[in-house]
Amino acid sequence: MPGYEKEKPNLLPYQYALAGAASGAITRFLSQPFDVLKIRFQLQVEPISKTVVGSKYQALLQAAKTILAEEGLFGLWKGHNPGQLLSISYGLIQFQVFEYLTKATDKYLNLNAKSPGVHFICGSIAGASGTIGSFPFDVVRTRFIAQGNEKMYLSMHHAFKVMLLKEGPIAFFRGLTPSLLLVAPQAGATFTSHNILISLFVYFKLIGPDRKPSLVQNLIIGSIAGTIAKTLVYPLDLSRKRLQIQGFQEGRKGFGKNFYCRGMINSIYLTVKNEGFAALYKGLAPSILKAAITTALHFTTYDVACQFFTMLNSNR
Asked: CA 123, CA 85: separation in Å to the nearest integer?
């Protein structure tokens, strides 16, 4: 964890993995409604505006009310099960790889594991590893969120089966290219921003030289780090989501026009051409809210989980 190297407990590898998995599960449940809103905005071809006739979703609050009215409370948690598996597998892989790489750079390369450069590289590799391992769950989650009340997929198992039979294994990795281009700099920027913010808090004497922030400070630092990272790479996130529904357009009945593209560059080109440059940032508001909450909870719950395992180890 950035900012905790000096006094970090020496846990077993599986304990770091479990801490990352628990962090992902808790974070996913609490942030899922923001994810649903974000993805619905990203997939809508019509402008997100109250002044345009035909736009199903016009603003954040209006979209939430519409989903509640048409799909019920469960509508805000669509795709939650594959989302949970996505978060658990991503968190498990990402944090374990990050812990291993930061220790390895210090032990074998004699580099300062606390430096921003090492954090960026290790965070980028960890984020890319987590993305590849968890990506099929991301595609299935997106499609569950995209479909309306007329269901094409009845369950997660059914979705995997139908996608495999109709589209082949490649369906589970649609949008992987922008995801890898997105997640490496985003994860690296998140870990780096977190580490720099910790250092700033120490410099201004808001926390002690032990670099251990309080729970509230950790939430604030994590939120800022997540917001910075997410904003920098957002157009790639939008491209990823639009690629993930290619071949699933019929499942979006009642949501307006469908978007068709042939790849990452083509998706970005068509989005700008037909909807304007600002369309690359559709859903940014719920995305920033989600990023801030997600990052803050990830770092905080991961730290709490590590402390819990430390307590268990000390009681043995």
From this structure: 21
Q: Residues 119-140: what's their mean pLDDT?
A: 89
Contact 180, 131 (CB under 8 A): yes
Note whether 127 and 189 are within 8 A (CB). Answer: no
Where helices occur in the chain by DSSP H, the ranges are 13-43, 60-71, 80-108, 116-146, 156-167, 176-203, 215-244, 264-275, 284-314
The number of beta carbons lying within 10 Å of the beta carbon of residue 255 is 18
Q: pTM for the whole thing? A: 0.75
Taking the C-alpha atoms of residue 60 and residue 255, their distance in angstroms, rounded to an integer, is: 16
d(CA 36, CA 44): 12
The closest of 211, 37, 156, 183 to 98, measured between CA atoms, is 183
Residue 297 tokens, joined: 């909870």
pLDDT digits (tens, 9 = 90+) for 38-96: 999 999 999 999 888 889 999 999 999 999 999 999 999 999 999 899 878 887 888 88
